[in-house]
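hi! just following up on the protien thing from before. the input was this:
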Amino acid sequence: MLYVGTSGWQYRDWRDTFYPHELVQAGWLRHYAERFRTVELNNSFYRLPPASSFDRWRDETPDDFVMAVKASRFLTHMKRLRDPQRPVELFWERARHLGSKLGPVLLQLPPRFRADAGRLAGALDRFPGEVRVAVEFRDDSWYAGDVRAVLEARGAALCLADSPQRRTPEWRTADWGFVRFHEGTGSPRPCYGARALTTWAERIARLWRPDQDVFCYFNNDHLACAVRDAAVFAGLARRAGLEPSRVADPAGPP
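and the predicted 3d structure came back as:
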């Protein structure tokens, strides 16, 4: 299945476009989860939430909901993957409270962090075997054969990231995929145009079969572009022969 959602849901400028004006913020996730089947939790990157938060998110979302979780920057940016055992253990102690709703874990590495295949392997090996891990590199030195081999050997997915400033190689390193849409060049910015989204739908259809899981998240939250683009993209993906998850009605702003 092609899981299509947004990177986060707690955006105040989505009020009156995606969230009804009268809906209190505590009800936003429930509203979101009725319209999308997946979301990427990204505030866990800045501060790992307590287990009780994961319990609450598990309980207030539908049975089929899936939450991808971005790993803490303590592991990726401060430790730079050194001594990963305790950071991964702490992350797992909290995130496992999502139960069956826990989707992939995203490791986003910092810019100017040069490739170290051994350090990457050590970090990936600390995650439980049943956990899917995607890695987003932001330094081109990581796009090398030994790094690809590390990902492939562990069934970890290279995160395919799209923005005007950055492109990733089309590596399929696992039988599942992870795509992040950071910023489009459509109108209004940072929305995506139909041509770019069509190209991405066709690219994903070329790399993975319809029965394989690919997780796609729109991180261009400004002006609620992410909500609209996710819905439009799902329709284009269906035309490309993929099977997208439920999405919100694309009509309306922006």
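The two ends are 27 Å apart (CA to CA).
DSSP finds eight helices and nine strands in the chain.
cheers
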